[in-house]
Amino acid sequence: MNITELEKITEQIKRYQLEDEIKDVENWLRNLNEKRIKNFVNISIEPHQLRGILKSKSLLINEAALNGDYYLEDIKFVNEAKRVGILVGLIFVAQDINSLESRYHREDMRLIADAKTDEIAYSLRGVACSKDSLESKYHREDMKQTANAKTDEIATCLSNVAMNTNSLESEYHREDMKLIADAKNSGIANDLSNVAMDADSLESEYHREDMKLIADEKNSEIANYLGSLSISMNSLESEHHKEDMKRLSDAKDDEDAKQIYYNIIKQYEVKNKKYYVTFQKKIDAIHQNAVEYTDGDTTKELNDSVFTLK
User: Fold this and answer.
1) Are 77 and 41 spatial neighbours (Cβ–Cβ below 8 Å)?
2) Among 113, 238, 280, 283, which has the highest number of CB atoms less than 10 A from its own CB?
């Protein structure tokens, strides 16, 4: 930095009344590299035209933003934000290292700026800053699907799956995102997103058909029971999972589905209880063998005979 640049920087600080924003001016000036200096002295918005940026003037001096290739564009996006939710989303992404270092930053900022609602802007912001999403091959299409979501709630479901490593690393991510985007309602979208992120379901042989059953279900309550059974490890490991899902999907109404679901779950609870009782009996027997073998000597090393049950 030379003295001419220092004078230009000082002029910009005063022009935009940033004195109170810079807590440690010595350090801040010391950290200004060539790119940061160039970006800062080239802010060209007239002070009286500042709108959105007034709500977060700290963006103007943010070191990560200043060091990015998009600084001047981002300031313009923020200043022209149509709503508060969009403004907040833009400010977050404009300062996020993951986004600033990605090739998607500019298009992500535009999608947020054009978001239909504040809630959708919030969902887009999460995906735009997600390292897992940014490093995946699905980032661009996931952002577009989230931006075009039919409802705010469906946008939330899409963004959650778009940032989920279980889904991103699976072979089902793209088709699951489409099923969620096309869901009949927000409740079914939520059920689908839960299954789409569940590691047990994704590793099972039933994931695709389970998702399809939930997506095709017209009754939201039945879809919810289907979703719960789809992520039940007990069910997924049983030989009856497929037929149980079919029984649920064929339920006459909510009450019928509830009865079927709880009957299925109850069977697993009984099986688990029997296993626990058997396990506990074995542990008790081993402990009794140990007591008899040591005959009061707690330091005596146990041998194999203690662990051999008759």
Assistant:
1) no
2) 113
For residues 48 and 223, give the distance between their C-alpha atoms in angstroms, rounded to a whole number: 54
d(CA 287, CA 300): 14
CA 261/CA 247 separation, integer angstroms? 9
Neighbours of 35 (CB within 10 A): 13
Q: For residue range 255-279, list pLDDT tens digits in order.
A: 999 999 988 888 776 554 444 445 5
For residue range 12-63, list pLDDT tens digits in order: 999 989 988 898 999 999 999 999 999 999 998 888 787 766 667 889 999 9
- Which of 67-71, 74-78, 202-206, 285-289 comes out lowest in average pLDDT? 285-289
Q: How many residues can be counted in the chain? A: 310
